[in-house]
Write a structure and sequence with these properties.
This protein is an alpha+beta fold. It is 46% helix and 22% strand. It is built from eight helices and eight strands; from the N terminus they run ββββαααααββαββαα. α4 packs across α5 (86-112). The termini are far apart.
């Protein structure tokens, strides 16, 4: 409790942390009015009913600016809504997870090779358009397989060289390469193709 003197010599007692003011002659309660600054949020009106649409737009790769334009609000307002509303930030996480899984599935298909259908339009001698359908085989892509394994298998070590800060680092097992070299040299010596002593 804190005591403060007033002009008319009444003693004023206030509780810190409370908004109650007590005088010795009578009790007066003073309540602070909460002031709202700015306009009411349009989030419940413009954004919340369209969360499903926003999720689809995010999956298609729309930016914050293009989503704000679709909703008819300013981009900075949309970014503020995203920071203030957990429902909206959850949509971003869901959309990113779905896009990542789609890319990983496509990368896996490409790394294993696949059979696809190709359509080609050709003109006949009579000038008639004909659509030809054919099966094509896409061979496995080593780069896609390497990238897929680097992202999904913690024990996988890429055999490709990786540039780090201007220097080149190559990941390989020296003992394994040495044993393969010795094996190849012994096979070549058996065939009398080369002089192994010159290589060593």
């Amino acid at each position: 409790m804190r005591k403060v003197k007033k002009r008319n010599d009444d003693v004023l007692t206030t509780d810190k942390g409370n908004d109650n003011v007590k005088t010795s002659s009578n009790i007066v309660e003073v309540k602070k009015k909460e002031k709202k600054v700015g306009r009411d949020s349009k989030y419940p009106l413009l954004v919340e009913p369209r969360l499903d649409e926003i999720l689809e737009w995010l999956k298609e790769g729309y930016t914050d600016y293009s989503i704000a334009e679709q909703l008819g609000i300013h981009p900075t307002t949309f970014i503020k809504y995203k920071e203030e509303n957990p429902n909206l930030s959850v949509l971003y996480t869901r959309a990113q997870e779905e896009r990542n899984s789609l890319v990983m599935n496509k990368m896996f298909s490409k790394s294993c090779g696949m059979v696809g259908t190709a359509y080609q339009e050709k003109l006949t001698k009579d000038g008639e358009k004909v659509t030809l359908k054919s099966q094509i085989y896409v061979p496995p892509d080593v780069n896609a397989a390497d990238l897929y394994l680097r992202n999904n298998d913690p024990d996988y070590k890429s055999a490709k060289s990786i540039e780090i800060g201007g220097s080149t680092t190559i990941n390989f097992n020296v003992a394994e390469l040495q044993s393969k070299r010795d094996e190849l040299l012994s096979e070549l010596q058996k065939l009398n193709v080369i002089d192994v002593k010159q290589i060593e």
